[in-house]
Amino acid sequence: MSKILSHAKIVPRRSAERGHADHGWLNTYHTFSFASYYDPRFESFGALRVLNEDRVAPGTGFPNHPHRDAEIFSYILSGELTHRDSMLKNQTTASKNEFYRMKRGDVQFTTGGKGIAHSEQNEHKTDTVHFLQIWALPWARGLPPTYHTSTFDEESKRKGFVTIISPLKGGKTATPEQEKAAEPTVPGSIPVHADLLMGASIIPQGSTYSWKIGGGDAVTSTSDRKVYVHFPMTTGGKAKVRLPTDKTVLSEGDGAFVSGVNAGDELQIESIGDSAAEVVVLDSN
Fold first, then answer.
1. What is the mean pLDDT of residues 183-191?
2. What is the rounded distance in angstroms from the CA atom of residue 215 to the CA atom of residue 164?
3. Share of the chain above pLDDT 90, in %
4. Closest CA to 194 of 107, 130, 246, 134
5. CA 95, CA 100: separation in Å to the nearest integer?
6. How wide is the angle at C-alpha 160 spanned by C-alphas 155 and 161, nearest 5°?
7. Euclidean distance between CA atoms 8 and 260, whole angstroms
8. pLDDT digit string, tens, across residues 51-104
């Protein structure tokens, strides 16, 4: 059974209660207010501002559009997503540092900063792409635009939580040299300009995995962390998870707001369905 964090407040966010729009080419669910969906109860949670679960039809996508003062990352669940931005040439083949057609396991991150324009297209002829689009609020405005693309091993996620995103070393007072070095506080992760961690795991049926809140000493704010647990729709409803209260059961598409927790606490998540459960955790100040 999952460990109970007696000081934690856990509030489920049911899939059916999310904002939803089906545009034909795009089938999207919004955890927070976004586009035509607005609910004043769900505008942000800590530094987390947007969490959309998107499916984009083949041969379609988001045309070139601008961003500024947002940390934006895409977590690919299935299919292919092609990212191009105003810092890159319009190419069809290149390295990850120039242009990249992302597949499952890939995460693409962009600092909008002073301003950047990008497109996200599904250039596959037959397959839909399914991904999470996540925005975080940066700790400063007017940052230099930048981007990173990394691949995170599937088998590692099946053994425990893998840290995908962690704060940039140097934090709010990072020097230009630290910005250029782009070193994260958690080695192997992608650096973000926010006191935020993202973790992901694929929890085998019947297993319980733990997320260490705050990643040990990876964050600046150590008390009253705000953790959002998201359970993507990846197995057609066969997976389920249970959170520490032993009463909070999440189905695919559900999420949960976890507040009142501190760095060093362990949030345990138990896979109780008929399939392994892919879970994403967003841990913020």
1. 97
2. 11
3. 82
4. 134
5. 7
6. 105
7. 5
8. 999 999 999 998 888 889 999 999 999 999 998 766 554 444 444 444 578 999
DSSP letters of the chain?
A: -PPP-TT-EEEEE-GGGSEEEE-SSEEEEESS-BTTB--TT-S-BTTEEEEEEEEE-TTEEEEEEEE-S-EEEEEEEES-EEEEETTS---SS--TTT-EEE-TTEEEEEE-TT-EEEEEEE--SSPPEEEEEEEE--SSSSPPPEEEEEE--HHHHTTS-EEEEEEBTTGGG--HHHHHHT-BSSTTSEEESSSEEEEEEEEPTT-EEEEEGGGTTT-S--SSEEEEEE----STT--EEE-TTSS-EEETT-EEEEEEE-TT-EEEEEE-SSS-EEEEEEEE-
Task: Summarize pLDDT for 113-162 with one digit per residue, the tens.
Answer: 998 887 889 999 999 999 999 999 999 999 999 888 999 999 999 999 99
Give the HSE-up count for residue 135: Cα atoms under 13 Å, Cβ half-sphere: 17
